[in-house]
Design brief:
Blueprint: H1 10-49, H2 60-64, H3 67-73, H4 86-94, H5 99-102, H6 110-113, E1 149-150, E2 155-159, H7 165-173, E3 178-180, H8 196-201, E4 205-206, E5 211-215, H9 225-232, E6 237-242, H10 245-258, H11 265-269, E7 270-272, E8 277-278, H12 283-286, H13 290-298, E9 306-310, H14 311-316, H15 318-328, E10 340-343, E11 348-352, E12 359-360, H16 375-396
Parallel strand pairs: 2-5, 2-6, 3-5, 6-9
Antiparallel strand pairs: 1-4, 7-8, 10-11, 11-12
Helix pairs in contact: 13-16
The structure holds adenosine-3'-5'-diphosphate.
Adenosine-3'-5'-diphosphate binds next to helix 7, helix 10, helix 14 and strand 11.
Length: about 400
């Protein structure tokens, strides 16, 4: 019996066709899976090769780190992207030093100061709002020259935190020959890896005949900053608002109380009040060792590039103090004593905004009331600071009379 080959019916044809399709589909799937696998391998590889992310103030742990622990632990510095070789940057980062070396009042040795470059910023991290004081009618008379563009700063207010830096910046902002960056930029102490172009863009627009000014008070106490600014420009002028260091520390502490800290000043400042032993590791104390910090700056810049603004005079006689600032910056004496009015309620001078006598004061975070501090602790601290203050007077050639 011959069995005729039965031609495939429509169902069978369909079956063999779908087998083919399945085959193709499987092959396509395999290729897809394989390429996904290869791609993910690549991804992982490049991820492991990427530089570890820098710890910035935005990192959640940053704010929680006690300040001294932060100084010791954060020995990494962002890699300079401008004018700096990698090995230089790495060398600067690797240098470490015991905190006590920084605290020796006798003969601070300039040669040792480079070692301080491993210490990170001492600033408590805080952002300040720009008290927007757009003032002084003379601004209208200003004749702009050149292009309207963002420029790197020619003047930097490098500190001192709680010295009156915001007041100085806002007073300068009222000057027609000045433009200011309202926010603290923190380029040289936190964001250096972002590069100079980033820094320039963080600056306000200005004309050629205007000075761009930025203020970041933590620069003064951050070891690597003088060197990094020097790499950017050797002609920058520095404004440093100084204040009696005990009052400064109390002001610093008042700010931290407002941010939710609760430990009383006396407890933070003293290791043992009976022995008058000061806790030098507390940043609010360390910032006040002005002579040590200044020594590092003078390794890179001559003294005549600094103006030491008296925080006390800035309150008591702002017209005269701003006169010195304007002369130092070679800008017109636009701000005079007539530009300021003492506000009884605020207890501070405020700027006259127009000829009708309207005034604008700084915000409520400036000129806070302070809790009373135990006079014995004050006396201990005054004694502690005495040699550093004297050294600072000798270095600057100015006696600020803080002991009186
Ligand atoms: P207090 O708030 O402890 O009084 P900084 O701006 O560097 O953080 O400094 C703040 C300090 O600036 C204030 O400290 C205050 O004493 C001082 N200051 C100087 N001139 C001022 C002004 N015109 N208005 C308010 N505060 C001023």
């Amino acid at each position: 019996m011959t069995v005729d080959k039965i031609p495939p019916g429509p169902g069978q044809a369909c079956c063999s066709l779908s087998k083919k399709r399945v085959g193709i589909l499987v092959a396509v799937c395999c290729v897809a899976i394989l390429s996904t696998y290869m791609y993910s391998l690549n991804c992982c590889k490049s991820r492991t090769e990427a530089p570890p992310k820098l710890k910035t103030s935005n990192s959640p742990s940053f704010h929680k780190t006690p300040i001294f622990a932060k100084i010791k632990a954060n020995t990494r510095m962002p890699e300079p992207s401008v004018n700096a070789t990698q090995s230089e940057a790495v060398a600067a980062v690797k240098q470490t030093v015991l905190f006590h070396q920084l605290l020796q009042p006798q003969n601070p040795s300039p040669t040792n100061q480079d070692d301080l470059s491993s210490l990170s910023s001492w600033s408590s991290v805080y952002e300040e709002a720009d008290d927007d004081l757009d003032l002084v009618p003379e601004r209208a008379a200003f004749k702009p020259q050149g292009k309207w563009k963002r420029r790197l700063p020619k003047v930097i207010i490098i500190g001192i935190k709680k010295g009156g830096t915001r007041a100085l910046l806002n007073f300068l902002k009222a000057h027609p020959q000045v433009t200011v960056s309202g926010k603290e930029v923190h380029f040289f102490d936190r964001f250096y890896e972002r590069g100079l172009e980033w820094y320039r863009r963080a600056m306000p627009y200005s004309y050629e005949n205007q000075l761009t000014v930025e203020k970041t008070p933590s620069y003064f106490v951050t070891p690597q900053v003088p060197k990094l600014i020097y790499r950017m420009s050797q002609d920058v002028k520095f404004l440093l608002v100084v204040r009696e260091p005990v009052a400064r520390a109390i002001s610093d502490h008042a700010q931290s109380l407002e941010k939710g800290k609760t430990t009383p000043f006396e407890e933070k400042a003293m290791l043992d009040p009976r022995k008058c032993s000061v806790d030098e590791s507390w940043s609010a104390i360390g910032i006040g060792l002005y002579s040590l910090h200044l020594t590092r700056w003078l390794k890179y810049f001559p003294l005549d590039q600094f103006l030491f603004v008296s925080g006390k005079n800035l309150v008591a006689n702002p017209g005269a103090e701003m006169g010195k600032v304007q002369d130092f910056l070679h800008i017109s004496r636009t701000l005079t004593e007539k530009s300021f009015v003492f506000n009884e309620t605020k207890g501070f001078p405020c700027l006259r905004t127009d000829e009708n006598g309207e005034v604008r004061c700084l915000g409520k975070t400036k000129g806070r009331p302070h809790n009373p501090v135990d006079p014995r602790v004050r006396a201990c601290l005054a004694e502690f600071y005495r040699p550093y203050n004297e050294q600072f007077y000798n270095m600057t050639g100015i006696n600020f009379h803080w002991e009186e």
